[in-house]
Amino acid sequence: MIGLALALLAAPAPVAPKPLFRDPVHDGAADPSTVYDPRTREWVMFYTNRRADLPMDDAKDVRWVHGTAIGTARSKDGAHWRYGGVAAIPVACTGATLWAPDVERFGGLWHMWVTVVPGVFRDWNAPRFLVHLTSRDLKRWRCGERVELDSDRVIDASVVALPEGGYRLFFNDERMNKAIRTADSTDLVHWTVGARLTDTPGEGPKAFRWRGRWWLVSDAWKGLLLMRSADGTSWTRQPGYLLADAGKAETDRAKGQHPDVIVAGDRAYIVYFVQQSGEPRAATDLQWHRRSVLQIAELRERDGVVSIDRDAPTEVVLGQP
Q1: Residue-level pLDDT at 319
Q2: Is the distance from CB of 291 to CB of 300 less than 8 angstroms?
Q3: Which of 75, 89, 121, 302 could in theory staple to 43 by disulfide, Cβ–Cβ 3.0 to 4.6 A?
Q4: Is the pLDDT of residue 175 over 50?
Q5: Which segments within 136-222 are labelled E, that is strand?
Q6: Domains plus CATH for the chain?
Q7: Is it the case that residue 245 has pLDDT exceeding 70?
Q8: How far apart (Å, rounded) are the C-alpha atoms in residues 178 and 167?
Q9: Alpha-carbon distance 1 to 64, whole Å?
């Protein structure tokens, strides 16, 4: 028994494959949100299940990113994932199109904020809003309320608990040139809209605390924009963009988009999606660029500056929060 225990302690950390995960239904995994389920002792990922395999005669037709469910995947180690089916989200309070889930655990209850588009559209001209759901087991979700944020075009929630109490929501306001904005709440139901954080368009914000600072990463469509803050109020933008240059490995040869971040003690990992436009098959299959996969890489921080080497092997060491 002692020998077995020592062998387990000496076992190397798993190295994540590329891609980290590929949706087996529509091959369009995007917009991940990852949490640890203490009940099953597994990591659970929720993601937008784009219909990348839907035949399209018109290149401007965007129905393939509508009519989308929220997919799930599960993992024991954070490196090797298996498909977990579609999240059981009630239709009564949502709609035909679901995007960009953000799943968090507050007060012993699981919460999800999901972007809802009420229909399937050929273009981007449609209302969009956030709906709040709750669950006790990460499987069965109950309707909450529509989140009122003084705009009819709101997407991409990221919610954090504040050290002094209360909660902060980071979101994308499309009516404000797709700026990332904030809203605060004491009860996760009623929100007071606050500051605009970005002066350039973007989407997919992810806020997190790591190494004594607040961080906010978002998708600027030319790589990931990163900001840092000592207090969560005053923010400093890091020059340039993360994951702007294509990787060298197969399935990772395009810019990184709409990320999630998993903080594991002193380490942090970014999970991002990559369109398959940089793959050789895209040269012969003109619709292959719509397909997308999820990848993972470790964040490296030095003197407040973060870098990512997407081509380096990623040893995933998550432990159990």
Answers
A1: 84
A2: no
A3: 75
A4: yes
A5: 142-147, 154-161, 167-173, 179-185, 192-196, 203-210, 213-219
A6: 19-298 (2.115.10.20)
A7: yes
A8: 22
A9: 54
What phi and psi values does residue 304 have, to the nearest 5 degrees? 85, 5
> Which positions ≥6 away from 160 have C-beta within 8 Å?
104, 167, 168, 170, 207, 208, 209
Q: What mean pLDDT do residues 234-244 have?
A: 97
Both structure tokens of 221 = 């469509």
The amino acid that residue 30 corresponds to is: A
As a whole number of angstroms, the distance between CA 313 and CA 293 comes to 17
pLDDT > 50? residue 7: no
Compute how many other C-beta atoms are within 10 angstroms of the C-beta atom of residue 29.
29
Q: How far apart are CA 28 and CA 67, in angstroms?
A: 13
Which tokens belong to 167?
């909660």
183 in Cβ contact with 149 (< 8 Å): yes
DSSP β-bridge partners for residue 237: 227
Q: What is the DSSP letter of 289?
A: G
Q: How far apart are CA 216 and CA 225, in angstroms?
A: 8
**What per-residue confidence (pLDDT) applies to 11?**
72
Tell me the C-alpha distance between 53 and 117, whole Å: 20
- Tokens describing residue 105: 């655990």
Buried b (16+ CB within 10 A) or exposed e, 50-87: bbbebeeeeeeebebbbbbbbbbbbbeebbebeebeeb
Region for residue 243 given its phi and psi (left: phi exceeds 0; alpha: psi -120 to 50; beta: otherwise): left
Query: Is residue 19 reached through a cis peptide bond, with omega within 30 degrees of 0 on the bond before it?
Result: yes
Residue bearing tokens 């990163």: 226
Q: What angle do CA 50, 55, 57 make, to 5 degrees?
A: 120
CA distance 155 to 219: 13
Residue 50 Cα distances to 32, 83, 87, 216, angstroms: 12, 15, 14, 25
The sheet with strand 167-173 has its strands ordered as 154-161, 167-173, 179-185, 192-196
